[in-house]
Amino acid sequence: MFEFPYEENASVYTIYITYDSILQPKEKDFIIKKQEKFPVSLIKDLRLGKNYKWYVETTLKSGKKTKSDYHYFSIATTRMVNRKLYQPIQLYNKKEKIQDGLIWCDQYRCAVDRKGNVVWFMTEDHLEQVNAKVVRDFRLYNDGNISFIHQPNASRVDIDMNVLWQAPAAGTISGAKKEDYHHALLQLPNGNYMVLGNEKVKFANENPGDTVTSEEVDFCNIIEFNEKREIVWSWRMKDYFPYEYLINSKIETRSGVVNPHANSFCVDETNNVIYLSFRDISRIIKIDRKSKKILASYGQRLNDEDDVMETDLFRLQHDIQLLPNGDMLLFNNNDIDNGKISCVEIIRLPATKKDTFQLKWKFDLNYDAQSNGKIDRMGGVKIMPDGNYLICEGSSNRVVEISPKGELLWDFALRQKDTSGRVNDKFALYRANFSRSLYPNYVTFYPTSKNELIVLNKGLETDIYTINIYDADNKVVFSTLSPEIKRNNSIKIKTPLINLKNLRIELVSSNTKLSKSNK
User: Are residues 149 and 137 in contact, defined by beta-carbon separation less than 8 angstroms?
Assistant: First the structure.
C-alpha cells in the first residue's frame, strides 16, 4: 500500500514504478503506471528480492502537472522462491470462477496470490523470533492482523510481525513449566483467544492384568484468554474424558494405550458448546461450556463400555467446523490402510442416540493423477466467501479450490527439493486459509483548507468511523461519527475548527476498532 502527499487542487495522481537499476528510465521502462483519484494505491505484482524506485505525478485541475522526487525501496526475499530448492506447481486457475485474494499456507510460512507468487512471508529473522519448529493455522483477520501457532507458542502479530498478543508461557492449566500450545488458535467474537494445549499424562503398568507399558500420552486442554492474557475459561481433558477407554482399546497400539491426538475445535456460540476433534481415536466430542461435561461423543468405539454414537463416516479426521445450519464440515483422512479414500465432507451429527448420522455432501480426493486420495497426515477445508471450498491436502502437499458441484477451479503446491533435485515427500501443509487482501481494513484522511476532512475507505468492506480531533493539550475539541462509507469511496466531514492541518486527528474503524492518526 502506497501513500503520498495530498494536493487539494489535484484531479488525478499517477504513480510510476521501475527498477532501481534503470538509471534514466523512459516511458516504456516503467513496469507499473497507475492512476488514482486520491493519493493512496494498492500495488500488486512486485517481485521479491528486487530494488525499485518510484515517483508520483500530480495533475492539477488547471491541467498543470508536477512530479515528486524519486523514492526508493527494496523487497526482501525467501528461500521459498528459490527454484533450486522449491518447485511451485499449478494445474488449475479458472480466473473467472474464483475470487481474487491470497492463500495463507502455514507450514510454508507464507501467503501466495492466485498466480502462486509469494506475497508475504516470515523471514529468517521472524523464524528466529518465534523459534518455531512447526508453524500452524495462519489466520488473517479483518483488522489486518494475523494469529498462528508456533508450537509451543501461540501469537497474534501485525502484518510486519510485531507481536500484539501472545499466550502466556506458564503451564497454569497443564501443571507443566510451560504450556504446549498446538494445532489451533482462534480469536472469538468477544475478542478473547481460545487455543489448544497439551498435557503429558503418564500411564503406568500398575495392575498385573494390564498390558500397558510406561507411556506418556498427550491429553488436550482448551484454554480461553482475554486480551490481558488472563485465563477466563478452561477445560482439562484429564478431568472429564474417560481415560480408561484409552487403555487396551480396540485401536491397536504398541504400548497398549492410545494417544488421542486432539487437532481442532469449533465453538457453537448460540448453544454455548465446543466441539473438539481427536485424530488418533477418530472421535469428536461435544462439551458444554458451562458445566464442562461431555454432552455427546461421535466416532469410533474404543471398547465395549464406550458411550459413543458410533459411525464410520470419518476416521483420523482434521479441521472440524460447525456450519450455520448445524451441519459439520470436516477433512476426513479416512481409513486409507484399509482401502478407503480421503475426502472432505459435510455431515449431520445425531441430536440423540435414536437419530442417525447423515452424509450431506462429499468430495473424494482422488480427483486427478496428482492426487491418489491417500492423505495420512494433516489436512483441512474452508468455505470461501463465494461458497467454494478451499481444501488443504495435508501430507499430499497441495491446496485445491473446488465449486460445491466438485469442479476443479484452482490449485497450488510447493515441492521442496534437495541439491540433487529429489522431492521431500514429508514437506507438507497443515492448513490453508484465504483472505481477499493483505489490507482488509484500510482508511486514510486529508484535512483541507476549508476546514473539511476527506475520509477515504480503502478497505474491503463498508465501514463507519469515529472521528476525534485533539488540540495541542491533547483534549478532544471535535468528535463525530461518520456515515457509512463504501469501499473505495470517500466523504467530506465539515468541522467548525480552524486550520485542521495543525491539529491531531484520529479515526477509529467501527468494524475492527483499528485506529489511524496523523500524530
Answer: yes
